[in-house]
Amino acid sequence: MTLTSFGPANRIKRSAETHPLTWRLRDDGEAVWLDEYQAKNGYAAARKAFADMAQDDIVQTVKDAGLKGRGGAGFPTGVKWGLMPKDESINIRYLLCNADEMEPNTWKDRMLMEQLPHLLIEGMLISARALKTYRGYIFLRGEYTTAAKHLNRAVEEAKAAGLLGKNILGSGFDFELFVHTGAGRYICGEETALINSLEGRRANPRSKPPFPAAVGVWGKPTCVNNVETLCNVPAIIADGVDWYKSLAREGSEDMGTKLMGFSGKVKNPGLWELPFGVTGRELFEDYAGGMRDGYKLKAWQPGGAGTGFLLPEHLDAQMYAGGIAKVGTRMGTGLAMAVDDSVNMVSLLRNMEQFFARESCGFCTPCRDGLPWSVKLLMAIEEGRGQPGDIETLLGLVGFLGPGKTFCAHAPGAVEPLGSAIKYFRPEFEAGIAPASAAVPPLARPIVIGA
């Protein structure tokens, strides 16, 4: 896993002042265990939170810092924390870490868990203190076996040091933390599906309201945050709101830094901690090094498979939620993918939609039936068997499966890249439409939904 610094040519060393998430990383890529982590000021923020801050002050500090969820949705973390009940008589509450990182082209949380497991534990410890939660779970993607091994070791180290368990740091506060590996479903990235899976149920999203803050795991108040989100908490507590806000570039409405990356046929694919507000062009040219020799950039996705495609001329957009929204899509996870000029967009979209169709929980009709239908149409177009009207049908599905039309956000994310691909590369789709003389009458065309 490549990790560079703010400097395009690696001339600027990572530091605590500029790289709150990654400055402790080892050059050899090995994990930072407890002794080294504490030597690098680890758990100092937790000690400050326990000794000097009231629980509500921790929540307010995170809210004032403008920290937003780093899993893709970007909901303000402090606001989410504020939804937890104030009633002190509710003494069973849960904190869940969403580590089910199954978004295609996204691997940022894996790096944090494998190389800085104590940073996540410290973030959860401070968050648990703020939210008055007595038990936490890291819901981990099952395929992340190294991350599971490292997290479990770090949990045991923290327990032995009195940083987890009973009477933490002499405060009278108890917090237990467990690593739970999932069974391998993309839908578990949705927080209520994650909760159902943790309870041993089918991983279907739940109806909201009630929200998890009111009725979550086993019916108790629950807060769910992403790995990278929780890893930002120690630095905010240690160094303050003004410093954290100062990290972002001018013009960005999102605060702090973000793990961003680029994959595809670029010269230097990798992952970097960068300030919100850098441009896509900086990320692509200065860090990823541009396209490999012999390839040209055809399109790019800014943040995972569930974000819309953009063109090379969109690279000047700033990398924050509002900046990417200005060019018509979402920031998502911030890990971009370059599509080179050798790729057929129909084939790429068919592959993506097959994944999303397979990972649908099947609960609601638009997603359960609409995504397989899009796959069948794309397969026909890819093979030159498309019929007149197929592109319009695909665009219709993009509308039918859009935001607010389905039970959760799975289908809207699945069809966003499809709609953008047709918008920018329609001739490639039209090339797969059979001549009118070969067209099959619409009523005679068998479409078996869900097969």
UniProtKB/TrEMBL annotation:
GO MF terms, alphabetically ordered: 4 iron, 4 sulfur cluster binding; FMN binding; metal ion binding; NAD binding; NADH dehydrogenase (ubiquinone) activity; oxidoreductase activity; quinone binding
Pfam families: Complex1_51K (PF01512), NADH_4Fe-4S (PF10589)
E.C. code: 7.1.1.-
PROSITE patterns assigned: COMPLEX1_51K_1, COMPLEX1_51K_2
Reported cofactor(s): [4Fe-4S] cluster; FMN
Keywords assigned: 4Fe-4S, Flavoprotein, FMN, Iron, Iron-sulfur, Metal-binding, NAD, Oxidoreductase, Quinone, Translocase
Catalytic activity: a quinone + NADH + 5 H(+)(in) = a quinol + NAD(+) + 4 H(+)(out)
Subunit: Composed of 13 different subunits. Subunits NuoCD, E, F, and G constitute the peripheral sector of the complex.
Function: NDH-1 shuttles electrons from NADH, via FMN and iron-sulfur (Fe-S) centers, to quinones in the respiratory chain.
Name used for this protein in its record: NADH-quinone oxidoreductase subunit F
Lineage: Bacteria, Pseudomonadati, Pseudomonadota, Gammaproteobacteria, Pseudomonadales
Gene name of this polypeptide: nuoF
